[in-house]
Amino acid sequence: MSQASISAPGKSGSRLSDSLPDDTLLGWLRSMQLIREFETRTMQAYQQAKIGGFCHIYTGEEASAVGTFACAKPTDPVVLAYRDHGHALARGMDPKVCMAEMFGKAAGCAKGKGGSMHMFDKPHWLFGGHGIVGAQTPLGAGLAFAARYEWDVLGTGEKKICLCYLGDGAVDQGAFSEALNLVALYSLPVIYIIENNGYSMGTAIKRHSANAEHLIERGKAFGINAVEIDGLDIRNLYDQFKPIADECRDLQRPAFIDLKTYRYQGHSMSDPQKYRTKDEVDRYKKKDSIANLLHHLMTERNCIDEAGWKAMRKELSAEVKEAVEFAEQAPKPDPSELFTDVYTNPQPNLSPSAVYHHGEKNPLL
Ligand SMILES: Cc1ncc(C[n+]2csc(CCOP(=O)(O)OP(=O)(O)O)c2C)c(N)n1
Ligand SMILES: [Mg+2]
Q1: Which of 82, 263, 340, 356 is surrounded by the fewest CB atoms within 10 Å?
Q2: What is the distance in A from the centroid of ligand 1 to the CA of 340?
Q3: Ligand 1: which of 193, 201, 263 to mutate, most ligand atoms within 8 Å of CB?
């Protein structure tokens, strides 16, 4: 994957993020390190068979979730694909709740019935991780429609933007093109953030997407403001993404972001990674977003030193360890939960009453 280096210094060399207080950038560092620590423990728990099902690790991509959320409001709706633990944590989900979900425990955000790919968090306006590639993109259009309708037509609420994240593998799904058409046609405030890590499972983007070097042309084709951003440098990401997010909110219109990023781990927990070289992974690790921000905070802002960084890591490690212990000890969902909150198909061996939905008789029976 080509990794364009796109930095956005403001006028006279100053950057938008330079105007932010030290505490904000230290918060970004903390949030990114929390995700990294969480994902390390997730992999361990998965290898010990404490987590089942599919599981996709976000390590390497942390700046994407943390940097984009820094430009949004806590009440802006968010909808995601399945590589979603990092976003859930960056949005404020309690690591205990997130880990319990992966362990299939009742204390999880989806009562342990969703697992790794389905992080939902109503209080934080997180409308879930979604396992069907591209399925969240029309949902993003719907959330933006609802937000705009409430503000513009009903005169209630505030101007919102929806942040809809998708992978580079999802850009070729037909549903995404349909969603782009509608959001452009109705001027809906959704930002499609393509977390472009260069691969769809083991297929490099150049092998599955036409004109892969210029994905933004797809957004432009619908008349949508489309921009390419280096998603590994969180300060650059903020500098470029913040004005776009502000404009989408003010003008209530969509945007399309090709956010260049990279995942250090395989696609899922079972991936021999034969499609890329170790050299390639190492090249990206040299541009690591956490190391990069830490260097800036240590050498330019002088707001953290080695001892402070060590203390931060120790605190986060303890927090994540506690989350794992909590998840291990938490009770499993009661079997009576099997048919609540889910759509079911009628099963011949079950009593019909078990498959009623919201009090209505299932029409398939
Ligand atoms: C409609 C659909 N087709 C195929 C799959 C199988 N599948 C699961 S993940 C994936 C790759 C998606 O890659 P990308 O969108 O780039 O996201 P990333 O894993 O890189 O974050 C595929 C093809 C699926 N889940 N849904
Ligand atoms: Mg990808």
Answers
A1: 340
A2: 28
A3: 201
What separation in Å is there between the alpha carbon of 118 and the centre of ligand 2? 18
- DSSP state string for 146-163: HHHIIIIIS--S----EE
Pocket of ligand 1 (CB under 6 A): 56, 81, 83, 131-133, 167-170, 197, 199-201, 267
Q: How far is the CA of 362 from the centre of ligand 1 (A)?
A: 32
Q: Cα(304)–Cα(295) distance, rounded to whole angstroms? A: 9
What angle do helix axes 289-299 and 306-329 make, rounded to 10 degrees? Answer: 140
Please report where in the chains the tokens 């997130």 appear, as a residue: 98
Cα angle: 4, vertex 37, 191; to 5 degrees: 45
Give the whole-angstrom CA distance, residue 265 versus residue 199: 12
Domains of the chain with bracketed CATH: 16-333 (3.40.50.970)
The pLDDT tens digits for 258-270 are 999 999 999 999 8
The whole-angstrom separation of Cα 85 and Cα 129 is 9
Helical H runs in 126-277? 136-148, 174-185, 205-208, 216-220, 234-251
Q: Provide the residue type at 90 as one letter.
A: A
Per-residue pLDDT tens digits for 8-55: 444 445 899 999 999 999 999 999 999 999 999 999 999 999 999 999
Query: How many Å from the N-terminal Cα to the C-terminal Cα in the chain?
Result: 51
